[in-house]
TrEMBL record, chain A:
InterPro entries xref list: AAA+_ATPase, ABC_ATPase_HisP-typ, ABC_transporter-like_ATP-bd, ABC_transporter-like_CS, MetN_ABC_transporter-like, P-loop_NTPase
Keywords (A to Z) from UniProt: ATP-binding, Nucleotide-binding, Transport
ABC transporter domain ranges (all copies): 4-239
SUPFAM superfamilies reported for this sequence: P-loop containing nucleoside triphosphate hydrolases
Record-given protein name: Amino acid ABC transporter ATP-binding protein
CDD domains, A to Z: ABC_HisP_GlnQ
Family to which this protein belongs: Belongs to the ABC transporter superfamily.
Pfam families: ABC_tran (PF00005)
UniProt source species: Leuconostoc pseudomesenteroides
GO molecular function, one term: ATP hydrolysis activity
UniProtKB/TrEMBL annotation, chain B:
Species name: Leuconostoc falkenbergense
Keyword Membrane: yes
GO CC entries: ATP-binding cassette (ABC) transporter complex
The protein's name: Amino acid ABC transporter permease
Cell compartments where the protein resides: Cell membrane
Transmembrane segments: 15-39, 60-78, 181-201
Protein family according to the UniProt entry: Belongs to the binding-protein-dependent transport system permease family.
Lineage start: Bacteria, Bacillati, Bacillota, Bacilli, Lactobacillales
Record SUPFAM superfamilies: MetI-like
């Protein structure tokens, strides 16, 4: 069953045509990596999936609900779709564990003891159990991102969106974050859509790679096919550029 | 010293009314100010406009005129004494400045905070209450402290409408004793009894919150 489905989606910023006739289907449990040069619309596309960006035309079905339908309650979709940002967006006024516990408490009305137990288990999973009481300002970038991932997981979402999760990190921090993401991808029921420039991660983890340029999807193929013989000249060019540095 | 001793209960009564008016106006103007600050950052243009008109009206008219308006005009429709009229005017006037201060605070909270909260499943109002406003107040704190101190001093407009406050009682004492200079020194000292602890408290709060995060 498809978790995310774009049907002829168009997105404009004023006169700028940001997404052009997007058709894309992502199945439940799939891990899909979205790559492309900067300004190609990758971030815009991923942000439409949980309604942070509105679409102007077409249909966008997430977990069976149409995001373009005004009757759809966006908060209900967001309950099931987590997002991890480039700049983490942790709550600066809350401790690490409170960052994780807040949404389950307010949105899911999860029992407080259960909430705490789950939050600690998640911190354990991302290797930061000893940082539970720390404020975000006391964490490194890599630690912040792992807390942000734990915060998303605490809602027990069906899908997770990653918008360049390692682009703002120092090189030595990237590995830890990718390890956590790799772990999540192993969970066969979690749908993951990842915008990244980490080609090794894409090769190792993705079921499918989507290549975008100028607001269009130019290539949508299995990971193996994409890296071994990309069909689009622009994808070939992009790959040769990112792989030779 | 005799002046203070002989009129102590009068000064004390004035002090009490000034303190009461200030506390009521402080609470009311914080609530109103925060409300109109939020109106101005909501996406709907007409709602923003309503917030903006409120702020412009009460920020740009002298406090004394607002006070007279309530005491002379509104009191004809809804009977109220000078203390009430003055306190309402003081609340509305101060709330316009607080709205601007809080709005600036909200705007200087990184937009990623709201986005992170919404993506995490929180509603706009939950995100405001738990994430954005606490950070906005912290940023706005030094400026809010200024507003609070101004508010206490501005409460002296109550004297113009028989509001029984410190300034009003001071005027009475000065008229009775002819010791104008001495009386207003005492009045000034009574104001300092409120404003000095208030400004120390605000500075303390600022330091405390700075260390908290």
């Amino acid at each position: 069953m498809s978790m995310i489905e774009f049907k002829n989606v168009e997105k404009y910023y004023g006169n700028f045509h940001a997404l052009k006739n997007i058709n894309l289907e992502i199945d439940e449990g799939e891990t899909v990596v979205l790559i492309g040069p900067s300004g190609s619309g990758k971030s815009t596309l991923i942000r439409t999936v949980n309604g942070l960006e509105e679409i102007q035309e077409g249909q966008l079905l997430v977990n069976g609900f149409d995001l373009h339908d005004p009757k759809t309650d966006i908060n209900r979709i967001r309950k099931n779709v987590g997002m991890v940002f480039q700049h983490f967006n942790l709550y600066d006024n809350k401790s690490t564990i409170e960052n994780i516990m807040l949404a389950p408490r307010l949105v899911l009305k999860r029992d407080e003891a259960e909430n705490k137990r789950m939050a600690m288990a998640l911190l354990e999973k991302v290797g930061l159990a000893d940082k539970a009481a720390n404020m975000p300002s006391e964490l490194s970038g890599g630690q912040k991102q792992r807390v942000a991932i734990a915060r998303s997981l605490a809602m027990q979402p069906k899908a997770l969106l990653f918008d360049e999760p390692t682009s703002a990190l120092d090189p030595e921090m990237i590995g830890d974050v990718l390890d956590v993401m790799r772990d999540i991808a192993k969970d066969s029921s979690m749908t993951m859509l990842v915008v990244t420039h980490e080609m090794s991660f894409a090769k190792a983890v993705a079921d499918r790679v989507i290549f975008m340029a100028d607001g269009q999807i130019l290539e949508d193929s299995s990971t193996e096919a994409f890296f071994n013989n990309p069909t689009e000249p622009r994808a070939q060019q992009f790959l040769s550029q990112v792989e030779h540095h | 010293m005799d002046l203070l001793q002989n009129n102590f209960s009068t000064f004390l009564q004035g002090f009490g009314y000034t303190l009461l008016s200030s506390i009521i106006a402080l609470v009311a103007s914080m609530i109103l100010g925060t409300f109109f600050a939020i109106l101005q950052i909501l996406p709907q243009k007409w709602v923003q406009k309503v917030g903006n008109i409120y702020v412009q009206v009460f920020r740009n008219i002298p406090l004394l005129i607002i006070t007279f308006f309530f005491f002379l005009v509104v009191a004809k429709l809804i009977p109220m004494n000078g203390f009430t009229a003055g306190t309402i005017a003081l609340s509305l006037y101060t709330s316009a400045f607080i709205a601007e201060t809080v709005r600036a605070g909200i705007l200087s909270v990184n937009s990623g905070q709201m986005e992170g909260a919404r993506a995490n499943g929180l509603s706009f109002w939950q995100a405001m209450q738990h994430i954005v406003l606490p950070q906005a107040f912290k940023i706005a704190l030094p400026s809010l402290g200024n507003q609070f101190i101004n508010l206490v001093k501005n409460s002296s407009i109550l004297a113009f409408v028989g509001g029984l406050d410190l300034m009003y009682q001071g005027n009475m004492v000065a008229a009775n004793t002819f010791d104008t200079f001495g009386t207003y020194i005492i009045v000034a000292l009574f104001y300092l009894v409120i404003t000095l602890p208030l400004s120390y408290y605000m500075q303390h709060l600022e330091r405390k919150l700075k260390h908290a995060a």
